[in-house]
Amino acid sequence: MKAKPSTRPFDAASYLTTEASIAAFVTDAMESGDPAVLQNALNIAARARGMAQIAEQSGLGRESLYKALRVDARPQFTTIVKVLGALGVQLVAKPLPRKKLQPVAAKLVRATKVSKSATPAKKDPKRAAASSRPRDRQEG
User: 123 to each of 20, 36, 79, 114, 129, how far by Cα in Å?
Assistant: First the structure.
């Protein structure tokens, strides 16, 4: 009888041994555009380093760190920045690829049109004075 091969669940944390590997892992997560993916990547990277060590270096309590990085949490941006710093990586902005830029640019154009149309037009001084006078009420 053949012995069954033993398997264990994959854990990316065991492969994150350097700042460079953590930076690449977190960068891939950020490029997904999904905040939940980034949060999970930070959780995995923090486990790779050791939650206690990351908590100490970030100035967060260990339990607070666990809570901030769990799937259903909504951590503050300052918490994310502290965790990134404790991991030895930084947040970097770079231009979007052209194909992703189009939808973002379209949203910005729509938002600009809405905000311009919501801006009040210059008022005629005579109309402004007339509209500021109290009007007679009709009772009926």
Answer: 59, 48, 47, 20, 10
* Residue 87 contacts residue 54 (beta carbons within 8 Å): yes
Q: Tokens in use for 13?
A: 């944390």
pLDDT beyond 60 at 122 = no
Class of residue 18 by CB neighbours under 10 A (exposed 0-12, middle 13-18, buried 19+): exposed
The residue assigned the tokens 């990085």 is 69
What is the SS3 assignment for 37-74?
Answer: HHHHHHHHHHHHHCHHHHHHHHCCCHHHHHHHCCCCCC
Kindly report, residue by residue over 41-61, the tens digit of the pLDDT.
999 999 999 999 999 999 999
Q: Which residue in the block uniquely carries the two structure tokens 């799937």?
A: 71
pLDDT band with cut points at 50, 70 and 90 for residue 21: very high
Residue 72 token pair: 């259903």
